[in-house]
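hey
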């Protein structure tokens, strides 16, 4: 008995239906893979550029009031005589260098380049300092100006020495210029007798 005419169509439908289902499953799987890949791609860690930190602001000690810089006067045979600013603890050599250095003809043998500086002092480069008389009535030499004298000039005064010379410079830095020779009596180590010896040798 021959098979009914609709049987071939049924067989074809049975073959086509599983293929469409498989294709749909494959497509769904591919779509899921693509979606997962897209999510993972977006969620991946990314390198973020970190802005460079701004450079530290350096405050000039000369204007900060911290007292970490000294202002000294450098005169004589240097390239740029005048006031220079150097860090606290600097030495005479640093002040000379800040003034452009000594001129070739300058004689530095009388200058202690290793001496520490004090604020407000004056450095005389290559110019011989007038000899200070050792007696009390010394005449013929100009008095030493207490407001412009260097440590070496003050040290050379009779009865002073390096310690008291430093105290004179420190007093000058703390109180400003001397207005009277009598103010030397306020400095520890200068008694009435020493003051009388110094009076004709110094000025303000």
């Amino acid at each position: 008995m021959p098979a009914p005419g609709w049987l071939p169509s049924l067989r074809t439908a049975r073959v086509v239906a599983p293929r469409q289902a498989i294709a749909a499953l494959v497509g769904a799987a591919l779509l899921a893979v693509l979606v997962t890949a897209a999510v993972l791609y977006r969620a991946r860690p990314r390198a973020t550029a970190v802005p460079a930190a701004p450079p530290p602001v350096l405050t000039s000690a000369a204007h900060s009031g911290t007292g970490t810089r000294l202002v000294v006067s450098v005169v004589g045979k240097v390239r740029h005589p005048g006031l220079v600013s150097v860090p606290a603890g600097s030495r005479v050599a640093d002040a000379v260098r800040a003034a452009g250095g000594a001129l070739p003809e300058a004689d530095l043998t009388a200058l202690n380049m290793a001496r520490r500086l004090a604020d407000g002092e004056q450095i005389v480069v290559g110019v011989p300092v007038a000899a200070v008389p050792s007696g009390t009535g010394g005449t013929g030499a100009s008095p030493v100006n207490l407001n412009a004298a260097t440590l070496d000039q003050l040290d050379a005064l009779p009865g002073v020495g390096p310690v008291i010379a430093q105290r004179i410079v420190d007093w000058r830095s703390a109180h400003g210029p001397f207005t009277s020779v009598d103010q030397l009596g306020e400095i520890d180590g200068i008694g009435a007798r020493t003051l009388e010896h110094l009076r004709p040798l110094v000025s303000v």
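The two ends are 147 Å apart (CA to CA). The domain at 64-203 is CATH 1.10.150.320 (DNA polymerase; domain 1).
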